[in-house]
Amino acid sequence: MRAVVQRVDGARVDVVTESGTETVGEIAGEGLCVLVGVAHEDTKEKAALLANKLWTMRILEGEKSCSDTNGPLLVISQFTLYGDARKGRRPTWNAAAPGAVAEPLVDEVVARLRALGAKVETGRFGADMRVSLTNHGPFTLQLEI
């Protein structure tokens, strides 16, 4: 699993539909916005490891974690994290797991975070999303599990 983690002072994800734009997930205050990509070989065990890392990683203000501050997380699936643009002009996403594999694993990350006590908001899998956030720092890192 691959995640891009941003420390934020608020974040929101909107879904574009035929009838307009709908906010499907939003966090306020200091927390994390997490984009999650899933590869073919990923498992529920890797999802649990990622959830635990996100909950306990000390990257908030004062070297605190979300578990220390009860900081919220906005978790959004993003298959393009496994894009490969080394050849040609068009990226490929061959390393990304198909939706039938990826969606349950992203849901598992969310479920594990909630089981740990986290307040978690999400995007909508496979939807046309718009993510807005205020990156605090800026602070962004990439995790590989």
Task: Describe it.
It is a single chain. The chain has one domain: D-tyrosyl-tRNA(Tyr) deacylase (D-tyrosyl-trna(Tyr) Deacylase, Chain: A, 3-Layer(bba) Sandwich). It starts with a strand and ends with a strand. The protein is globular, with a radius of gyration of 15 Å. The mean pLDDT is 97. It has helices at residues 44-56, 66-69, 99-115; strands at residues 2-17, 20-37, 73-77, 120-122, 129-144. It is α/β, with parallel strands linked by helices and 145 residues long. It has a 5-stranded mixed β-sheet with strand order 4-3-2-1-5. Helix 1 (44-56) crosses helix 3 (99-115). It is built from 3 helices and 5 strands.
Topology readout:
Layout: E1 2-17, E2 20-37, H1 44-56, H2 66-69, E3 73-77, H3 99-115, E4 120-122, E5 129-144
Parallel strand pairs: 2-3, 3-4
Antiparallel strand pairs: 1-2, 1-5
Structure characteristics:
five-stranded mixed sheet, alpha/beta, 145 residues, D-tyrosyl-trna(Tyr) Deacylase, Chain: A, 3 helices
